[in-house]
Amino acid sequence: MREYNPQSLVVTIDPKDPKDDWAQGAFHGCHDCVQAQCTEVWHTNIKFLRGFSYEVFPEVKEIAKKYKKVMVMHDGSHFYDDVLKDLKLFDELTTEGSYMVVQDTKMTRMYSETMGNGYPLRAAEEFMRTQGKGRYVVDKKFEYSLYSQHHNGFLKKLPGADDHQGTKHNYII
Asked: Residue 146: its pLDDT value, please?
């Protein structure tokens, strides 16, 4: 993203700090690999917020006010209730013509019957029936060759769904 817009920003949210947890075992056998937080892009185009989405939402909201376009990619907890809460919460930040991408909707097909949870796909469907109804459409153009990890998860916010005004920069994800 920074290649076409050097002022872009990715805000990443996680209850665990990458240097304390998920990056630890990723580099065994790769002598040239560098942890993400040790790169220039991490310090110029990425802002890491530690916490759960509902805890850091006020800070994300303040950051988003500075940007013209805001896209949300949900790849946190994949449980139905968590996904639905996050979609409802981050809806107000997603700008018209942009997306909320619900990742790993495939889990619903894979585990819903045995685990009894609706997972991301059912949460996206419920959001589209309720708060997102008439304001978003499912955009299937990113589902290549009838396969996607995120089928029916590209939710595009329609023009006129909200009224965003003010001077803003470029992109935030």
From this structure: 64
